[in-house]
Amino acid sequence: MTDRALRLGTRRSRLAMAQSGQVAEAVSRVTGRPVELVEITTYGDTSREQLAQIGGTGVFVTALRDALLKGEVDFAVHSLKDLPTVHPDDLVLAAVPEREDPRDALIARDALKFTDLPSGARIGTGSPRRTAQLNAYARSHGLDIAAVPIRGNVDTRIGYVHDGTLDAVVLAAAGLNRLGRADEVTDLLSVDTVLPAPGQGALAIECSADHADLIAALGELDDPYTRAAVTAERSLLAALEAGCSAPVGALADLLADGQIVKEMRLRGVVGSTDGSTLVQLSTTGPVPETHGQALALGRVLAAEMLAQGAAGLMGERAQ
Prior knowledge:
Layout: E1 6-11, H1 14-31, E2 35-40, H2 43-46, H3 51-54, H4 62-69, E3 75-79, E4 91-95, E5 104-108, E6 121-125, H5 128-140, E7 145-149, H6 154-162, E8 168-172, H7 173-178, E9 187-189, E10 203-208, H8 212-218, H9 224-239, E11 248-257, E12 260-271, E13 278-286, H10 291-307
Parallel strand pairs: 1-2, 1-3, 6-7, 6-8
Antiparallel strand pairs: 3-10, 4-10, 5-8, 5-9, 11-12, 12-13
Helix pairs in contact: 9-10
């Protein structure tokens, strides 16, 4: 490997630049080489349509992958939840660093908690998954809320609360943490209330399959537990044949006895966006030691969820 700067492909949003900047520092440490950010505009950044309408799958990823394949960048950083579940043969997921907080966070006016929101409160989110679970929780607890579809970056979304357009917005806690804005969160939503998107809070570092030296160097940033967890979650998503914008939540976490990690639990949910019907199940097994074992954990739970009617709740299934 030469000493030239490594080129990191990233989306242009403030959040993408923040998380790519953090990865760049880590990659520079393990390679001893400078890393420069190459800003790339994706279709998902320029389209004003709701993600559910444009399909969601790959809209933030394709342009970055094209730049990788053309040799315009050496590696790319994605929010892992944006990655399609089918992986191209000529690219490698070289590292999945340790995951940030996977939970969803509420930013509400007057520092309100979710359960303290007034009757008829308008909550902004661009996610059918969040909409389904928030509505289901509200139904079961006698709350009256209205989920309002929104797009835009973090500043835009929080701005809707500050200007009185909305009572609250829901965003990923990980993104707010990476932007240094965790102090604006008024409520962290328990995963028992809202399961996150598969892969939420994790980053994906991707590069060309023929760059063996770079793959090995990036691999030093990989966290095996995070990789096993997100592999199981994404396997569930793939087996449900659901895209990134489907109302599917999933979270794999480790179950420990004292200091000893014993098992991995995978929870999944699919719901109708009005919250009237949820299929929510979990499965537990040994901590996966191979990629195949992590995939199997997801497939087992997906089969159980499909047997409970999950397919009928996902609307348009991914092609």
